[in-house]
Amino acid sequence: MKLNQDKTIMTGVVKRVGNWRHTVPLAKKHEAMKIDYRGMVYAIQNGLKPSDGINRFMITELGKHLTELGERFYSGDIKVVDEFLQLYCIADEQRKEVIKQREQQVQA
Description:
Blueprint: E1 2-3, E2 9-11, E3 14-17, E4 20-23, H1 37-47, H2 53-74, H3 79-87, H4 92-107
Antiparallel strand pairs: 1-2, 2-3, 3-4
Helix pairs in contact: 1-2, 2-3
């Protein structure tokens, strides 16, 4: 059993906070080629001109956000995926549909 800095107890992939328990969903282990995102971020940054300051900043932030995504997800915070998708405007229409469906369920 491992006690994290935020005083949560990690037992395998189950996170316990008080009486709350959540299992982190895991996919099958990826066995094919893997890509280290940090190398990609570094390569993109080095390919930009010094005058592309805002793009350099955004790429740096993307790298930080990817790191945070992984750390928080594997710590049991699965809502971080939704935060990330919202931040980068990914699947906005699908998210609106999920919200619409939830609202309809509440009204039923």
